[in-house]
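B., you asked whether I could sanity-check this one before it goes into the benchmark set. Here's the sequence:
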Amino acid sequence: MAPYHVPVLVKEVVQWLLHRLDGVYCDATAGTGGHTLALLEALGPQGRVISLDQDPVTLEVARERLKDQGERVRFHRGSFSNLDDILRAEGLSAFDGVLVDLGLNTYTLSRPEAGQSYLVDAPLDMAVDPDVPFNAAEYLARASEAELADVFHRYGDLRKARLYASRIVQARRRAPIRTTFDLVRAVMGDRPLPPAELSRIYQAIRVVVLQEQERLEQFLDRLPDWIAPRGRVAIISYASHEDRLVKSRLHRQKGPTAAFSSLTKKPIVPGPEEIANNRRARSAKMRVFERRGE
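And here's what the prediction gave me:
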């Protein structure tokens, strides 16, 4: 099992998100609690963090890790796409700031039973959120070749999307694709694929299984209801389709009816030192927005 997930852009998150040191903030994709811990350490004694994650396993890791923080942190299991229940449970009308990190948690990746790694043979699950309706094996058993090709192109930026879709359909005619290695063998063909290519295939399937695109759209649509005036939201994305959606919904808002103003003209990215120490940070982009109002 891997150690705690190493969060990206920690200093930048603290610098840009915390505009009130006595405020209430939401780490809406908490993972093993790295960003939550950094926020708590920077906040004043009255400041609080609501820590949320869709994966009950990683959330329990975060809960144990931060147990010494007492009532300054509270934990909820759920998706960042619906913060209504969280606000209601905490007796709040809005948050002073929300952080969403859309990256894959390395702690989850290291769990064989999660079925999200092509490096370990395990059941092809990926459904670490108990609320999603199907897992990866079930999806690959029913998705059409055209749908798979579209998913690989849209969410994996794969140039050979049609080829991989065709190989999966051909492979499942011979035998069900039930494990992570079944999927690797299905898409490989006659020669091994580069790790980056396999990673993008897995990424694209995970987007569908965990409803990542739909949930991000829901989050962006409802965000004005969840952020207090002058409150902030920081969104860290890793894939081009995620950043495009964030830009189209928030960054390009203009005019008096726009709910948010962009605080970062260009996305904030990790420096060379952080990338050298954490290769998963190399594709991270953070955009920060402020809720308009008095």
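One thing to flag: Residues 133-209 form a domain with the DNA polymerase; domain 1 fold (CATH 1.10.150.170). Otherwise nothing jumped out at me.
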